[in-house]
Amino acid sequence: MxxxxxxxxxxxxASGDGETANAATHPREPTWSVVEHxxxxxxxxxxxxxxxxxNGRLGTRGSLEERHTGALPGTFIAGVYDAYDSPVIDLVxxxxxxxxxxxxxxxxxxxxxxxxxxxRRSLDLRSGVLHRDTVFGLPGGARARLRTERFASTxxxxxxxxxxxxxxxxxxxxxxxxxxxxxxxxxxxxxxTYREQTAFGHERKWDKWAKxxxxxxxxxxxxxxxxxxxSRTIDSGLDLAFALTCSxxxxxxxxxxxxxxxxxxxxxxxxxxxxxxxxxxxGLATSxxxxxxxxxxxxxxxxxxxxxxxxxxxAANRAAWDRxxxxxxxxxxxxxxxxxxxxxxxxxxxxxxxxDDPTVSIGAKALSGEGYRGHVFWDTEVMLxxxxxxxxxxxxxxxLGYRHHTLPGAREVAADNGxxxxxxxxxxxxxxxxxxxxYTPDGKERFYTREEELHITADIAYAIIRYAAVTGDDDxxxxxxxxILFETARFWVQRCTEDGDSLVxxxxxxxxxxxxxxxxxxxxxxxxHWHLRQAAAVYERMSRERRERLHDxxxxxxLDPSEPAGWRAAADRLRAPTDPDCGVIEQFDGYFDRxxxxxxxxxxxxxxxLPVRYSPFDCEATSLLKQPDVVMLLHMLPDEYSMATRRLxxxxxxxRTMHKSSLSPSIHAIVGLQVGDSRTAQRYFERSAFVxxxxxxxxxxxxxxxxxxxxTWQVATHGFGGVRADADGLRFTPAxxxxxxxxxxSVHWRGRPVRADLGHRDARFELLGAGPPVRxxxxxxxxxxxxxxxxxxxxx
Length: 796
Ligand code: BGC
Known about the structure:
Bound molecules: beta-D-glucopyranose
Number of helices: 20
Shape: globular
Number of strands: 32
Low-confidence stretches: 1-27
């Protein structure tokens, strides 16, 4: 399969790849955009995900404004969950602020009622704006052009904007633009069970699903020219308000409200070649907004009032994006295709996080689709956090804030499972309580992740320590960080059981979800060991450096001064198995006895296919892994193992890994590069970088693989760029692929950005921001950076 970038290449089209609608590049700014050429209903749901616009507060899928049969539209507001009418809590498919219809001479302009002559959409990654340009054929041969622009503002995260322009290309016509906010939204629940071969066309794909209702309308009306739709989530009782203003020059305006929607209609008499325009501004407020006190309705109205015009809002949005890109960009000189993929990944990361809200996190599909129901996994701390930590530290801090905000829920999870302290849920939503279902959506398979995938609690501790190490933010570490570390350390001590002289962790599941009910998963045990020691070390530092704060914290969580010594003692006794003869870390007790099933078949991307007879639910007895487990451990704690051990274990486990999670390839790429396997690493990097642009997992329509996007950034910066932040400080050991000329990106280190421009034979660095010089290590040698001075280092 071609990559998205290659699909636009005229040569590849001329060679007849047969695609009619592809993600592709913008001819002028190929690395800053993703383009859809032509209308293909089979690809429409894919583009809905790819073209999501957002700002971390909300995300809106890239559906056509007028929708199409088979559309899967959605607006998702971070933190707005509801459990009514569905067995598992959902991130609510919120009122649709795009909702529009356009008529020319009574004909509805949509992909089924009118002929699509041209269709092109382009997502501008630099400014977060989706542009659309469709030419429809009308009866009698006339044509009408529909152009739109939309964005969810990053300058004002409560604001969304849509511009609609209609041109009668060759005749005079009567144009009607109807646009509003539609509160009649439902979440997909599950597909009824059909005989196995049942296949639905794009137009039936979603309409057979059971659907959950989460919203009731509590008011829809206009005050003068401004409309407000108010809805409430049924179970969680959250109030949402959407305010709407609309302007259109020279038309006749009508407005209307129904019980769950508001809309404005504009009627224009349009001359041949003439264009009419309607601008729509939407303000959003919810009752869960962090620190908000005034009623939602008032706040939503204020938002549209202060936005001014579409053009003012667009300029402010653009300026806010420009500021974000200064530190976030990562580009490759000599490989535009990879640069586009990196920017696409970064774009989706930037629209996933809200640095101003420490009560929400990022779900497995961010705010781009209903996949995984918006639930939050370990993905955030292990895959996503490094990107934010090194480019947007405020967003990283906010993401950690969510875990403190949900600490009461984590205490409940621990109590429900018979221990004290706090245990984080495998799948978390608004409260931190466990939301992970027990069965697959078709009810056929039981899975045990909610009971057994305990390692997430240590992963969160890991993220806290990493955040503090990179930022130097001791106020956080000794505040919310310490509270989480101590409460979770208490959980581990109680969860361990005695086995002779050792402590063991029985009946768990490591990151490799093909194996459940295992004892002493090496990843979990080692991370817990590390976590317990780090918690004790933070306690010891606080008793020297922040006695008062420690005293208050101990009083508030009832911590006995003898407990931290117990954490260290438990860490020392926790079993961490490694084969003494060959040095391979046994993934869990008895893993070496599982049936060795060789991987003998690979797909077009060079990724393994499951051997015939096996499905992801019956690999328990085999040596096959879903995703890195020991290799993930080597990635997270590289300093704990020698290079020889890392190489040996990478080679051993890489041969057994099926990569059935999109988290897997990027981690293999990074560890592969560290142990010198750069050829395999490049293949894994490709797989990760194009997971959504190429839809190489086949389910992009359900939402972006946001962990993979972040993994892609990590491969570029930490893998090829060789970035590491450890006890000696910030290191760069670049080793670029032969086809790349230079790799450019920034990393924040202790509050200040360092720009890196890395080549094969040299590397350049610049430290920004005022303050003392900073020492970094480049290719093993110390280098001192003075603010504002570019330093060039020659490769050894
Ligand atoms: C993976 C998990 C991941 C989850 C959400 C699963 O398929 O195995 O590691 O947390 O997807 O992305």
